[in-house]
Amino acid sequence: MKFTLIILALALLAGCNDQKGWSEGNKQSFIKSCITDNRSAIGEKQVNQYCDCMQKKVQERYPDYRDADKLTMSQNLDITDACALKGWSDNEKTAFMNSCSETRQSMGDNKEQAVTYCDCMMQKIQAKYPDVTKTGSIPNEEMTIMARECIRLRKGSNP
């Protein structure tokens, strides 16, 4: 996620030691830096799992940590995708609910109506798109159908 910072961390690690491979210190430094860089985006519960995966994948590709700073953007994206946590983190759920609720209230819903609508939308989207990274490609037609069902629910009608 934070490609530049990962490369910087790898470069710093590479200069620290003449030992080949990855020492425990190298692994822990990588993971700690990754956690710091990604905690707010991923969430406290899942960041450790993500960063542990990232460290292992980088080490698989570059068994000698001194070579790890050669990681390209494309390779970083491949590793990030492989380590991406499927599903929605608590932070992503909260961000969706906050954004959706604010939008619905600006459109005239009261808070209860907005929360009911947004909860419905989040459940429908999560059911069809359990991988949050795929939600950016939801067709407008599909979003409209889900929205209509949730609006009916919000108004007290059966979807």
Give a short overview:
With 159 residues, the protein is mostly helical.
Tags for this model:
2 domains; elongated; single chain; 159 residues; mainly alpha; 0% strand
Detailed description of the structure:
With 159 residues, this protein is mainly α. It folds into two domains: 81 residues, no CATH class; 65 residues.
Q: What's the end-to-end separation, in Å?
A: 38 Å
Beta-strand portion reads: under 5%
Number of helices: 7
Query: How many beta-strand runs?
Result: 0
Largest pleated sheet = none
Give the integer mean of the pLDDT values: 82
- The total domain count is 2
Q: What general outline do the C-alpha atoms trace? A: elongated
Q: What's the Cα radius of gyration?
A: 21 Å
- Helix and strand content put the structural class at mainly alpha
Catalogue the unreliable spans. 1-5, 11-17
H/E series: HHHHHHH
Helical proportion, percent range: 55-70%
Layout: helices, strands, pairs:
Layout: H1 3-14, H2 24-42, H3 44-61, H4 73-83, H5 90-106, H6 111-128, H7 140-154
Helix pairs in contact: 1-2, 2-3, 3-4, 5-6, 6-7
